[in-house]
Amino acid sequence: MRVAVIGLGYVGLTAAVCLSQAGHEVTGVEADPERLARLRELRLPFFEPGLLEGMTGALRSGRLSFAGDVREFGDPLDAAIVAVGSPQLPSGRADLSQVTAALQSLEALPLAPRLVMLKSTVPPGTSRRMLARLGPALARRYVYSPEFLSQGTAVRDWQAPARIVIGTDNKELLGEARELLRGCEAPWVVTTPTNAEMIKYAANAFLATKVSFVNEIANLCDDVGASIDDVVEGLGLDPRIGPAFLKAGVGWGGSCFPKDTRALANVAVGHRRSLPLLEAVITVNNRQPVMLLGAIHGSLQRVAEPLVAVGGLSFKAGTDDTREAPSRTMLPELIAQGYRVVAWDPLVACEVSERVFPGVTRAETFEQAAAGAHLVLVLTDAREIVGADWGAISRQMQAPKLVVDGRNCLDATFLRAVGLNYRAVGRAAS
Ligand code: UDX
User: Fold this and answer.
1) Ligand 1, atom 16: nearest CA belongs to which residue?
2) Which of 68, 72, 82, 141 could lock 102 by a disulfide, CB 3.0 to 4.6 Å apart?
3) What letter would DSSP give residue 240?
4) 250 alpha carbon – ligand 1 mean position (Å)
5) CB atoms < 10 A from the CB of 162, how many?
6) Residue with CA nearest ligand 1 atom 14
7) From the CB of residue 397, how many other CB atoms can be counted at a distance below 10 Å?
8) pLDDT in tens, 265-310
9) 8 Å CB contact between 344 and 278
10) What's 337's DSSP letter?
């Protein structure tokens, strides 16, 4: 099929690369001239494992190309995927201007594509409202298919999704959709656009709920002398609960969970409904970094000129994305409290950390960051942090030699054996 993918963020670019690998002739459309120029120079605007290699191969094969505007197409398209941003406005509502503009640009083509698939996350009811405005011609070709890619595993998630959700009012499009997504083996959920939109929000809200729930239980474990690791093992083996998304720590961040939980809460407000559970999930998450900061202040009270080393700036390991990462709230607070802060991250670029974390010194390695520190704060479970030479780090740290493990990823027994004080989330009894 001849396919256009509009919007080359991590969803759109992953889609463009994987679709060309599946044999389609794909043009990736990116309106930002700087991003487009970078892509043409084979430079990714973000880090995503396997994507650069895939993109390079797809460009060489001739099945992938880039354009700045969908109007550059000469030949008619078989399908178009829209994966532009839908950021949150200060009012809490989703900014749908990019989505609307992309759909309008497809409508304006002399020969509109047979299939138009929206992938951007949009509040339930959006497709219906947009289609009513944009007209029946688009409605006949329109499918809403939410994306469930996780950063760090996006390519694998595209190729082997847990499910494919297709929301459409025109079942005749299913053949086109199957042809477009050929090679992605997964159960299909075929439903209405509004249901598909709701599935996306409900999935992210549920996963965020699991993490906030386990964080609450972990906090209580510290009070009662229980170990969250053992508690989660016992919980997760119940097939009705499952072990996924039960890792306690500093809380969730990133480009999806914070935005989508807030957006869902906002949708409820629009319908004069309160969602107390979702509100609590957000509140618990906001409290986790504050709780760890409290523990840090308590431990460093008597230290003159405390030096804090931070391992990991991104919202999770395996990505360079710092959007809504715990580091974004914690590091400014540490600086405001008068601490010297040295940080290291395996993927976040130097210029980004200088811009996003003013006042924080950047180290070349994790061990270098930790040298001379009174406290090490671990904010991602990056391989280099978990596998660091903790014996050497202990020898170079200053009292109280405290490691605050915000990801419950280190071996408490080993760290204590090498002379470090260790604190995590729900592991006081470990
Ligand atoms: C998420 C969804 O998983 C994905 O389906 C959706 O398309 C986009 O949002 P992503 O934001 O890449 O993906 O990250 P994910 O791996 O889901 O983790 C989200 C946050 O929860 C991270 O900050 C992570 O550190 C945290 N988390 C996750 C935990 O604290 N504990 C866990 O057990 C799991």
Assistant:
1) 150
2) 82
3) T
4) 13
5) 9
6) 150
7) 24
8) 999 999 999 999 999 999 999 999 999 999 999 999 999 999 999 9
9) no
10) T
Ligand 1 geometric centre to CA of 245 (Å): 8
Report which protein residue has its CA nearest ligand 1's atom 34. 245
Q: Which two tokens stand for residue 227?
A: 């170990």
* 202 backbone dihedrals φ, ψ, rounded to 5°: -65, -35
Q: Distance between CA atoms of 392 and 370, rounded to whole angstroms?
A: 10
pLDDT tens, residue by residue, 64-84: 999 999 888 777 899 999 999
Cα of 379 vs centre of ligand 1, distance in Å, is 14
Q: How many residues does the chain have?
A: 430
pLDDT-derived band of residue 429, with 50, 70 and 90 as boundaries?
confident
The CA distance from 320 to 346, in Å, is 8
Q: Would the CB of 360 count as within 6 Å of ligand 1?
A: no
Q: How far is the CA of 202 from the centre of ligand 1 (A)?
A: 14
Listing DSSP states for 85-133 in one string gives: --PBPTTSSB--HHHHHHHHHHHTSSS--SEEEE-S---TTHHHHHHHH
Mean pLDDT, residues 204-226 taken together: 98
Are 71 and 109 a contacting pair, CB within 8 Å? yes
Q: Residue for token digits 């969908």?
A: 70
Catalytic residue among 18, 184, 221, 256: 256
CA 1 to chain centre: 30
Of ligand 1's listed atoms, the one at least distance from the Cα of 260 is 9
Query: Is 90 exceeded by the pLDDT of residue 347?
Result: yes
